[in-house]
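Sample entry (142 residues):
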Amino acid sequence: MLFSSVKAWLSNIGGGQAFRPNNLGHNPAGALAMMALMLLVLLIGLTGYWSIKEFYGDVMSEAHEVLASIALGLIVIHVAAAIIMSFIEKQNLVKSMVTGKKLGMASQANRYPMNLIGIVLALAWIYLMFIIASGDLPALTQ
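Predicted structure, serialized as C-alpha cells:
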C-alpha cells in the first residue's frame, strides 16, 4: 500500500500536474525514506554490536560499514528532497521541521500539546547519559 501511494505521488509530481500539499506530515516518498532510515539506524546499531562481539567475524563489520554508507546517502537525498519540496510547495519545510509548525487546515492541527512527550524523552536521555557516564550501566562489550 505504501509503495503504491509513493508511486502515484511521484507520478503526479513528475507528470507536471498541479500539486497541492494536503498533508501536514511527510509525503508518501518522505515517509518511505523515514521508515528506511529508522530501519537502517536499528540495523547499524545491531551490526555494530555484533561486530564488537565478533559475531560472524568480519561479515558484521563490513555490513555495519555498508549500512552506514547507505544511511548517509539516504540522509543526503532526504535533505535535498526537503529543500526541493520547499520550493514546490512554496513553504519552508526546514523551518517546519525545527519549529514543528506547518501551514494547514484547523482540522489537521494537534488536539493537545506535544511538549510533555518531548520533556519526558529529554529527561530519559539525560538519565541514560548519567547512568553511562557514572559507570552504573554494565558495559555491553564485556
